[in-house]
Amino acid sequence: MQLRFALILFGALMALGQEPQLIPGVPAMNAASRLPTGVPGGGVAQGARFVVLGRDFAEPVSAKLEISGPAIDAEVKSVSSKQIEIMAPRFASTGTGWVVLNVAGKELRAPIIMLESAPGILTRSRTGTGAAVAVDAGLEPFTPNNPAVTGDLVRVRTTGIGALPNPTNIEVIIGGRTVPAAGVTTYPDGYDDIEFELPEVAAGCAVPLAIKTGSFVSNYTSLPVGSRGTLCPDSARPSNYEQLVTDGARIGSITLGRTEIGMKQFKMRADAGGASFLRYNGQNVSEGFAFASSTTAGVCTLVRAYEQDQPDVPYTSLDAGPKLTVTGNGGAKDMSRESKGSYAGRFGEKMVIDLPNVPAIPGGLFFEPGTYTVTGDGGEDVGSFSAQVKIAAPLSWTNADRIGADCGDFRCVQRAEDLKIDWEAGDPNRMVTVMAMSATEGRPAGAAIIVCNERADKGTLTIPSLLLSKLPASPSREPQSLINFSVTNGEPSQQFTASGIDLGLIGYSDSVMRTVAFR
Predict the structure, then answer these.
(1) Domain total of the chain
(2) pLDDT tens digit string along 353-399?
(3) pLDDT tens digits, residue range 229-255?
(4) 193: CATH
(5) Same domain? 164 vs 57
(6) Strand blocks (E) in 340-397
(7) Is 516 exposed, middle or buried (0-12, 13-18, 19+ CB in 10 A)?
């Protein structure tokens, strides 16, 4: 009895020490886009729903806004231990101010910038990325099994259009095309529906979708587009997708590759591999956490994230044995088990210095064109297997060291100008992916990644300034921003089988990275 009383008292004392608090440096953020004010594409608008992040939140909670005048009440919509969701009044003043919270008797203050319009698209994953919450004219959700078709009226759920929405000022960016909004419906709960007629765009399960009001561009989400009554086309989506959505998925993923990173005359090349064996539930599969959909060829999209708002994706690690072995033209190399279900190995590296009278630095690489086999003896959860992947000759990124302008140790890229990427044309079955990445200075960090896909035979693609302008400017001293050029092996997703998994995927890519400064 005394022990039980002591435990109850200890628990009560611990609870007393867990006071609610905000995450330092994290301002209010749009509840749909999940990006804070101050980050390109992040913002809170009059009448919008927004969130503040922290820990140990508990009822009761009240909220006020202090922006350019007397404080006004704001409606609290929901409270969890880590976030509070609030709706801004439609008559709130614009400008810089504070969200003043009273959480279980404690006052907390989070910075906020109120804008006239700052739309965010609600996503099925509730993370600001992935599939948009969108329905057809009959209010049926668009899904991979029910893709949008050219001419459909699409209704997208958003928040942050503003207090006085005007359809003539709203545009929809879909599959690289821009079309006017056909209508807007506002609701008293802080959400808005934007309607548009789907133009003719390339089909896919993840066609990029964004909303534009004036110069403000929302988060980039995706919409499945295809033919009536058929599954949307997607090379990354397996044939047993419907079963995986229903039953969950045990997925084995093996990635091999060569990476080159450098600037000017110094380049480091490294061959490496990694693998994971994980079990996801059906909801994680349907929301795109188990494996990503491929972006349509010829189109760019934008992925943005905030360091303190990353989703917790539940999964179970699967044991596939103590190691995996990669065998090819150069012999055999091992990928060691780093933790249950996770494997990694470094197979070779070489420094290349392009300077006169400087001798080559010793070193060797592993991957050459040919067929490579990955084998595993199996473990408690996954049986033995053998997986093969064909490696084609790499394609050269021909203007890698001429992008932007010379500005000292780095190349400087102007975000207000289109950026052209050229390469040696190759097999049309191979896919080129170009990613431009940058993060805000200081912590916590907000990051943005532009992803563009194109067939290798095209030989060129252009990253539009509309997207480049949404990257955070590089820090003034050490840019740490990158442009990555990668090429897949040139075949559809290669699969392997093993007992204990529902889907096995293996792939290879050549990647070339250049450090740049985005200005």
Answers:
(1) 3
(2) 766 666 666 668 899 999 999 999 999 999 999 999 988 888 889 98
(3) 887 776 556 666 667 766 778 888 899
(4) 2.60.40.10
(5) no
(6) 342-353, 370-376, 385-391
(7) buried
